[in-house]
Amino acid sequence: MADIRTFDAPDELTTAAADLVLDAARAAVRDRKRFTWCLSGGNTPAMLYRKLASEPYAASFPWDRTYVFWGDERWVPADDPDSNARMARDELLSRVPLPQDHVRPIVTTGIEPEASAAAAERAVRTLLGPDLRPDLVLLGLGEDGHTASLFPGTAALGERTALYAANRVPRLDTWRITATLPLLNAARRIAFLVTGTAKARTLRQVLFPEAETVVLPASMVRPANGKLTWLLDREAASLLPHAG
Ligand code: 6PG
């Protein structure tokens, strides 16, 4: 059963998320001398990234032992306002002493989608080494049940070998480069960060699926040998069976 934690105030949630990342980082550095962290995109994690770039986290986090890569990227230039890498750079990576050569962005210019996915896979395989297990994967949840860029009904959901895929998303009429379930589910720890009333119905279907309902991509994220934590605000958790 997943570890589900609900928080009333936004800053409580952000602090709990920052503490979870810091704890994961400290454990990884203690056990393996480095912390490999798969970042999420979208808007929700911005508050977490800002919190980690501020005190007391900025001064106590093992930035020099931290390596980051992404769970997905939009098919836009790196300086595009929609770029996940740009958001993380603006809110965190440009504000903490994480070495630039510890960052593995997904390349989205001067390359075709399939080649970008292959390059991302090579970079992450090289980074993670033979055990291929990220120390922490941070994920969000879309209102349609997608996570990373694993959207319902898209080809990447079925990938069981490659670690990244170029995923055509008809609903958005765009390409996305996404980590696949084999990579996500290899993580030592996975944390979903979900806020807002708009996610409540989807979250209930993901966490407490009713019989014969469609299996949503986020429901397929189940670490084979790791810990799964859901960090929620009161609004996102409002339709869960034990909601207060
Ligand atoms: C992305 C993310 C995606 C995101 C969800 C939720 O590239 O958009 O990886 O999976 O986590 O769409 O996005 P919000 O946090 O903006 O609601």
Topology overview:
Layout lengths: L2 E5 L2 H23 L2 E5 L5 H8 L4 H4 L5 E5 L1 E3 L9 H10 L9 E2 L8 H16 L7 E4 L24 E6 L4 E6 L1 H4 L4 E6 L5 H8 L19 E7 L11
Bound molecules: 6-phosphogluconic acid.
Number of strands: 10
Q: Label the structural class.
A: alpha/beta
CATH class: Alpha Beta
Determine the fraction of residues in helical runs and give it as a percent range: 25-40%
- Give the terminus-to-terminus CA distance: 20 Å
Low-confidence stretches: none
- Give the strand content: 15-25%
H/E series: EHEHHEEHEHEEEHEHE
Q: Which CATH-level-2 architecture? A: 3-Layer(aba) Sandwich
Written description of the protein model:
This protein has 244 residues and is of the alpha/beta class. It has a single domain (3-233), classed as Rossmann fold (3-Layer(aba) Sandwich). 30% of the residues lie in helices and 20% in strands. It contains seven helices and ten strands. The chain has helices at 10-32, 45-52, 57-60, 84-93, 113-128, 181-184, 200-207, and strands at 3-7, 35-39, 66-70, 72-74, 103-104, 136-139, 164-169, 174-179, 189-194, 227-233. The strands form two sheets. The chain has a seven-stranded parallel sheet. Strands 4-8-7 form a three-stranded antiparallel sheet. Helix 1 packs across helix 2 and helix 2 packs parallel to helix 4 (84-93). The longest helix is centred in the N-terminal third of the chain and has 23 residues, at 10-32. The radius of gyration is 17 Å and the shape is globular. Bound molecules: 6-phosphogluconic acid. 6-phosphogluconic acid binds next to strand 4.
